[in-house]
């Protein structure tokens, strides 16, 4: 059995960018800021492409929900080896209100429409750190889920997934179709080669709107305030270990 | 007053629109040029999505495979060219504008310039220089004029990253004056016998072959030279003394001697006697790419300085708060942007098939000047820290100094610009001829 794999890839502010809170304190500055593919999604794409190279997958579809520029993110996925893309257009203004539940509904609907047998998404997006999309997608589809995958192997009709959990590694088996979320150590994503970047130009990206999929973007969450993390205070120098211990005790750290 | 302003702005709008919608000439080359330039004017963006993807993929490769090792390679005064080039070659970066028949991608020169600009994200000057020797200094003539045999034997493995190449033009007695080189390649049956020496050869210690400029006959200095593909394992080639430099440490620079080196005459690129002309053409790409490589380091130099001076406090406030500092940095950034625009414009014209020699000479000159001015001004704002080895700015201060000298010194660029402007006194060249006759 050869799988059709649906992979989520979100366009987020690049990890190297210094994030600035907007003056209205309801979000962060995104205008004129470098964006790129969520690193965990890059890992998800890489895993899907590897499955295809091992002939376990027959087709890899990259999905991004976002503004027009999300197509650039899809192109990156196509250059890495995905076969085609689906861009679910969300106007820039509405992006802030897009919740994991909305994306999960979109992914679930697309998984059904495309008859995908495997959905891989990043374990979280580095912008809102929700860590919810994989779980909710699995719930909506009523498929098994294997989250925080650090290793993925296909056995007969099943996936054997190694998960990174607090105590160490846990190995589970899930029946297909299933939803997987990728952890940092699942693989090391490739950089797209120039010939593949040029080939990606010719691959197809289908465009649709949430309402084409019957998904309503009504909000369930409200952002009350976004603030900067507290700035680190300057350190002090101490004479010796005893003073250090006393100071730490005074500060209530030990 | 207000009316006048409005009129003027309307006039300009009209003129500008006229440029955009105006009838183009019937020459298709021209049409292409204007289309390139126009597309760029209309969008304000020189690079398309594919160019940007190329750059982001290359930057990723650089961040993973190159930058983590740069400090060590700088200390060791060498970098593993074969290993690094193979990675770049496998990703398709070493033959961007080279013919597809030999493993290249056949893309227009805009992609090469995009590549060069992204190469600047390597944290030193030496490695980008070594890479551009491979892609745009030693191989353009071979790709354009070489026989199928030569392209199969030398170009294909160079594009794949299996072979490292160096360019052998300069000699101890002739750097700026390329026509005055003394290395000879004399015919003996079907072979050439090479004698002489080359100096300042980048990649010289690691190269598998050299694109060599040598005199293949007597007579006019501009018609007696040929470019020759020379395998570096040929008997009679001696690579001596690694030249110790003030910068570009990770790039090896060799002095190379030739003693009765025998190579088949079919290794001559294109027509015998055309070497000087080919090299002058090759220089255009070398200079354009070499200048594009400078843009990102100059940007980073300014950005790092802004960062440092905004945190460093003197007299109770950040160094950056002094108008002398932030105005200077603003001015430098303006200069770099102007250079960038010149690079893009020349690239668009070059893609359209125009002769860009004058413009490229201006670019090379301006790049050389800024490569001195920007790191020097920035280093100053780092105070004592600027004088140490511990920061990127002082490395650039050393590395970028070369831009005003290599690939044609600033003064040589000025002479070319003057030649195009018709202001170069004739006496200079006739004097040179006399001197040469006297020394021969
Ligand atoms: C690190 C490094 C790497 C290099 N890599 C290579 C390589 O890979 N292959 C290669 O072939 N060469 C290479 N070169 C050589 C480089 O191209 C030459 O150094 C350069 O062309 C200058 O030649 P020169 O050093 O002989 O200086 P000279 O020709 O002696 O010139 C000295 C100075 O004279 C002045 N001058 C020259 N001409 C004029 C003029 N017309 N009017 C007024 N003033 C003038 C300029 O200020 C010039 O800097 C490299 C050099 C260095 C330092
Ligand atoms: C090799 C070396 C040897 C040295 N030897 C000695 C020594 O023997 N004894 C000793 O005591 N010190 C010594 N020094 C320290 C030297 O005197 C300081 O580096 C110098 O005074 C600058 O101070 P700083 O490095 O702290 O730069 P900063 O004070 O941080 O200044 C950084 C830059 O800020 C800018 N700046 C500063 N003030 C202003 C202003 N008012 N307006 C506009 N711009 C401003 C300048 O461009 C300056 O270069 C040495 C330094 C070096 C590198």
UniProtKB/TrEMBL annotation, chain A:
Function in brief: Heterodimeric electron transfer flavoprotein that accepts electrons from several mitochondrial dehydrogenases, including acyl-CoA dehydrogenases, glutaryl-CoA and sarcosine dehydrogenase. It transfers the electrons to the main mitochondrial respiratory chain via ETF-ubiquinone oxidoreductase. Required for normal mitochondrial fatty acid oxidation and normal amino acid metabolism. ETFB binds an AMP molecule that probably has a purely structural role. The electron transfer flavoprotein serves as a specific electron acceptor for several dehydrogenases, including five acyl-CoA dehydrogenases, glutaryl-CoA and sarcosine dehydrogenase. It transfers the electrons to the main mitochondrial respiratory chain via ETF-ubiquinone oxidoreductase (ETF dehydrogenase).
SMART domains in the record: ETF (SM00893)
Residue stretches making up the Electron transfer flavoprotein alpha/beta-subunit N-terminal domain: 25-217
Similarity comment text for this entry: Belongs to the ETF beta-subunit/FixA family.
Protein name as it appears in the record: Electron transfer flavoprotein subunit beta
One GO process term, biological-process aspect: fatty acid beta-oxidation using acyl-CoA dehydrogenase
PANTHER family: ELECTRON TRANSFER FLAVOPROTEIN BETA-SUBUNIT, ELECTRON TRANSFER FLAVOPROTEIN SUBUNIT BETA
Localization: Mitochondrion matrix
Statement: the UniProt record of this protein carries the keyword Mitochondrion: yes
UniProt xrefs under InterPro entries: ET-Flavoprotein_bsu_CS, ETF_a/b_N, ETF_b, ETF_beta_N, Rossmann-like_a/b/a_fold
Lineage, uppermost ranks: Eukaryota, Metazoa, Ecdysozoa, Arthropoda, Crustacea
Quaternary structure annotation from Swiss-Prot or TrEMBL: Heterodimer composed of ETFA and ETFB. Identified in a complex that contains ETFA, ETFB and ETFRF1. Interacts with ACADM.
Glycosyltransferase in keyword set: no
Keywords: Electron transport, Mitochondrion, Transport
GO cellular component, one term: mitochondrial matrix
Molecular function via GO: electron transfer activity
TrEMBL record, chain B:
Cofactor: FAD
GO biological process, one term: fatty acid beta-oxidation using acyl-CoA dehydrogenase
Signal peptide: none
GO molecular function: acyl-CoA dehydrogenase activity; flavin adenine dinucleotide binding
Domain Acyl-CoA oxidase/dehydrogenase middle: 166-261
GO cellular component term, pick one: cytoplasm
Pfam name, any one: Acyl-CoA_dh_N
Keywords: FAD, Flavoprotein, Oxidoreductase
Entry keyword Cell wall biogenesis/degradation: no
UniProt name for this protein: Acyl-CoA dehydrogenase 6
Native source species: Petrolisthes manimaculis
